[in-house]
Amino acid sequence: MKKSLLFLIVLFSIVKANAQSYMGYIPDNYAGVQGVLFNPASIVDSRFKTDINLFSASGTLTNDFYGLSLFDLSKDSYEVNRDGARIPKKIMGDLFFLM
After folding, report:
1. C-alpha–C-alpha distance, residues 41 and 29, integer Å
2. Which residues are registered as beta bridge partners of 86?
3. Do residues 47 and 30 make contact, with C-beta atoms less than 8 angstroms apart?
4. pTM
5. What is the pLDDT of residues 51-66, one digit of tens each?
6. What pLDDT score was predicted for residue 59?
7. Distance from C-alpha of 98 to C-alpha of 14, rounded to nearest angstrom
8. What is the pLDDT of residue 98?
9. Which helix (H) or strand (E) holds 9?
10. Which candidate, 83, 87, 88, places its Cα nearest to that of 71?
11. How far, in Å, CA of 78 to CA of 13, rounded?
12. Given its phi and psi angles, is residue 61 left (phi above 0), alpha (psi -120 to 50 degrees) or beta?
């Protein structure tokens, strides 16, 4: 359970890091409306007369109720369901990674 949870955390953090932006596409003159998110002045030198974005989607899933200690995840006897800390009951002073 611990190894699969750690694998999923690493997998989703990599996916999120790669999904943040298209760095080769954003500064391009043909980026249009999508380039305005990082550089508002890029719309002035746009190569398009009209740029209409018909559909765009974004999503996120977070949880601030359940915390895991990064140091305890490396222990063999650590069970996430049993040893994980619920935030209202957490002990002050411990370092927690919030999922």
Report:
1. 11
2. 66
3. yes
4. 0.30
5. 787 876 656 666 666 6
6. 63
7. 17
8. 46
9. helix 2-18
10. 83
11. 22
12. beta
Distance CA 59, CA 21 (A): 14
**Residue 89, helix vs strand vs coil:** helix
Q: Are 25 and 34 in contact (CB under 8 A)?
A: yes
- Identify the residue whose tokens are 């305890």: 72
Tokens of 16: 């999120």
Token pair of 47, please? 């190569």
pLDDT per position as a tens digit, 16-59? 554 555 555 666 777 777 777 777 887 787 777 887 878 766 56
Assess contact for 95 and 68: CB atoms under 8 A.
no
Length of the chain: 99
Which residue is associated with the tokens 């996916």?
15
Calpha distance 10→3 (Å, rounded): 11
pLDDT tens profile 76-94: 877 777 776 665 544 545 5
